[in-house]
Amino acid sequence: MNNDYLLQEIKSISDDVQKKILNAKDKSELLDIYNKYIASNGILSQKKNNILKSKSIVDKKTAILKINSFFDEVKKCFEAQKKSIINAELLKENEDISLPAFDLSVKGINPIHLIREKIIDIFFGMGFKIYHSNDIDDEYYNFTLMNIASNHVSRDMENTFYIDQKLLLCTHTSHAQGRAMEETKGKPLKIISPGKCFRKDDDDLTHSHQFMQIEGLMIDKNINLGNLKAILEIFVKKMFGENRKMRLRNSFFPFTEPSIEMDISCDNCCGVGCYKCKNTGYIEVLGAGIVNPKVLEMNGYNSKVYSGLAFGIGIERIAILKYGIDNIRRFYTNDIRFLKDFKG
Length: 344
Ligand code: PHE
Known about the structure:
Helix content: 40-55%
Bound molecules: phenylalanine
CATH superfamily of the largest domain: Bira Bifunctional Protein, Domain 2
Strand content: 15-25%
Structural class: alpha+beta
Number of helices: 11
Shape: elongated
CATH topology of the largest domain: BirA Bifunctional Protein, domain 2
Order of helices and strands: HHHHHEEHEHEEHEEEHEHH
Strand order of the largest sheet: 1-4-5-9-8-7-6
Number of strands: 9
CATH architecture of the largest domain: 2-Layer Sandwich
CATH class of the largest domain: Alpha Beta
Number of domains: 2
């Protein structure tokens, strides 16, 4: 017997095994083939050992390389067939012929992204720059630097998602204020900062434990409530149209003094009063105010020289108002029937 003949034999068995693998219809057939031919005590390995023991093989190294390359082909073929059998079985399990076919031509953009881009665009137009911050931060930035007292209820475990003693999922985008001020080191700044917020909140149609905000912060000499009102007015007109009216109300945030809340006239009743605006004619939109001098000082600004304005816009809230969406959860469930209406 010569070398070539032996290699020829193992090659032809390998080819046969590959044919058998490709004809296997299910996992158990495939397993039988594996045990019979491929496993370490299978026919292929036995043949290999016989060949290597045979005295007629002079160049053993070349023979091993050749045999291994036949085996590799068999193993590749086995893996490919295994994958396709598993996929076919999965498909069968999930098959529900009553489901409508997917229409892959439908491409929608989530309205919260559309609104976020639009808000950013409006503030870009007014000279604000984007400041990127993380959604996880130290409680020092989220609370302390924002003048939120150490016994404030928002710090409670029930209201805030803590990761450890210090780190938390940000409860608002205002933590970006401290981060931005730290970097700007006592100089004028004008930024917006989009981010995610997490709170234990009422589970109702307009609240969710996770939502998005865009923070705004502008610090310079002589910033006053008039500047804030002008900026918010431009925002409302550009976002909701020239005819939308806005209203500012007194409010309270520890980081702004004075603090305000902004409402816009109800689109449903044009300010007359209806179910949507709870008969008030107006709908609450955002919180804002003049930066509390204490916050400026804590963050390295001389409050005798500089003053600032800040606002926090809820992105989902704007999207709900702009598109008349009935439930905040629609933004998060990736339902193509909903998304296809928002093509950007
Ligand atoms: N951080 C406030 C909130 O989450 C919003 C806000 C931002 C208010 C900036 C005033 C100034 O409700």
